[in-house]
Amino acid sequence: MGEEAEIMSGLSDGGFILAFNSNIDAILRVSDELLESIRDTRIYPDLVQSMREGVGNEVSVDKETIKKLKEIFDTYHATRRIGGNAAIMAEVLSKLGVSPIILNRPAPSGEELVHFVFEFDLPSGGKERFIVNGGLEEEFVIDPAFVESSIQEVDHMRGAIISGFHLLPDHGYSEKIDAVLDLIKRWKDKNSRLFIHCELGAFRSLIVAHELLTKIGGLLDSLGMNGEEFLALAESSGLEITPDVMIDRAGAVMDRYSLKRIVIHTEKFIVGLEQEGILAAFIRSLDFGAAVAAAYITKGEFPDLDEVLKVLHGIAPSQKAVVEGRGNLIAVTCGVYPVKSLKQAVGRGDVFTAGYVLGMVSNHQQNFVD
Question: How many CB atoms lie within 10 A of CB 121?
Fold first, then answer.
């Protein structure tokens, strides 16, 4: 099936480690009746503002509000499905045929974490989400059983994707970052060829992001995030999200944190920069990630390989890859795959990332053939 199939065939004898955030999403479509039922809760003004601005948001609330939401979501028979960056990417990779997968799934209070998700339609098409969690102290937990199994099996793993760091609590985050650093080092000590990608989110504090990347940046093979998250990290919030703006500021971020590779994904384009590697493989991996995301958007569910190949062979990307040198860096701008129908846009960043890293892992293991 060509180059794309090689991505998959190279994974037959190795799997992935996915960490750190996973939960259950309880999902309800916003209606007038639902809004009325939460009018007396503290989340009501924030949800209304998110809907008015057409942007997603995530907030933490007290236990009393969580209890109230649980009753409401049970009354309205909310849809339940797996959530959290790590868990979503694990599901995507599994659907694409990757096995085995080791996933961190902690239950700090004895029960699985539940996020209450209010899904609303956007005037331009598509959907957004307003997410309510029960407090960050329970959101970023590393399960000791996961640590043990991941270290034990890392010799047989080819890739690791770590995420959820935007959920680090305001107090005690240094200890959690140190635990992650120690785990990464132990993985690398046992398997130096393990490809590690870190996917960032929207940090409430750049102090936390800075400490995280200062400590683990040099151990990463790749770092990813969306356009808004990148501009925040680059201390350039408010600038227009264009390829030139991303590329102009990416070099400084890479130097500051000793990064080998950075990927910025948006709805309209994808930018990637790397210091070294096989350029053709990097481009193909970005393109494969974009195709996986397009198949997901069209289907509304995580796609299998055949559905991804239909996108690659049946839809022209919005632009051909543009390559340019920036000092000691190579910058690549790739298009996305425009689709006629959009059934689901929420989570496409995680879906893209899973596809992109899948391609990079194949290259990293010398199974990605030009």
Answer: 13
pLDDT at 109: 60
Torsional class of 84: left (φ above 0), alpha (ψ -120 to 50), beta (otherwise) = left
Same domain assignment for residues 121 and 154: no
- Does 91 fall in a domain? no
pTM: 0.87
155 and 275 share one domain: yes
Q: How far apart are CA 49 and CA 52, in angstroms?
A: 5
Nearest by Cα to 253 from 272, 234, 238, 226: 234
3-state secondary structure of 278: coil
Looking at the structure, tell me whether residues 122 and 200 fall in a common domain: no
Compute the Cα dihedral for 217, 219, 286, 307 and give only its sign: negative
In a shared domain, residues 180 and 326: yes
Q: Does residue 120 sit within a domain?
A: yes
Please name the residue that has the structure tokens 């102009």: 248
Q: Are 85 and 162 in contact (CB under 8 A)?
A: no
| Mean pLDDT, range 155-174, rounded to an integer | 92
How many CA within 13 A on the CB side of residue 340? 3
- In this structure, are 264 and 186 located in the same domain? yes
- DSSP-based three-state secondary structure for 202: coil
The answer to whether the peptide bond before residue 338 is cis (omega within 30 degrees of 0) is no
The rounded Cα 237 to chain-centroid distance in angstroms is 20
If one compares 354 and 105, the residue with the highest pLDDT of the two is 354
Domain count, the chain: 2
Q: What is the pLDDT of residues 81-103, one digit of tens each?
A: 888 899 999 999 999 999 999 99
